Amino acid sequence: MAAIPTYRWRCAPDGLATRRQLRARGLRPGGQDVAAQLERPRRRRGPLVAYLYSIEQAKPVRPMTPAKWAALAKANAARRICPECRRDAGYVIPTSLGMCTPCAYPDEQRAA
């Protein structure tokens, strides 16, 4: 098994990109193996690692189909429904509360 080439942070050669950089160009790795990795040193922990992929072997991002758009809209709508009162809160329910603000703080709503 060959070792993956490792580069220091911001020293990667041209022609390689991270997943995010590929996505910004409208590309995806497309099943290719990792070509190299970047390491960013940290003081008290192990280094941060970012995997690099070849830009030439990258494939275009698959377009969203109407079914995918519908599924995404349904999932986003579900995040707005309060599990307590079953109403649309008008915003994404915070996971820290697990319910809409009026249900989470009922005493504060009556006092106002």
Write up this protein.
- The protein has 112 residues and is an alpha+beta fold.
- Helix content is 26%, strand content 19%.
- It contains four helices and six strands.
- Strand 4 and strand 5 form a beta hairpin.
- The termini are far apart.
Order of helices and strands: EEHEEEEHHH
Number of helices: 4
So what's the oligomer here?
single chain
Question: Rg to the nearest angstrom?
Answer: 22 Å
Q: Largest sheet at a glance?
A: 4 strands, mixed
Structural class: alpha+beta
Strand content: 15-25%
Summarize the structure.
The chain is an alpha+beta fold and 112 residues long. The protein has helices spanning 19-24, 66-78, 101-104, 106-111, and strands at 6-8, 16-17, 27-28, 36-40, 48-54, 59-60.
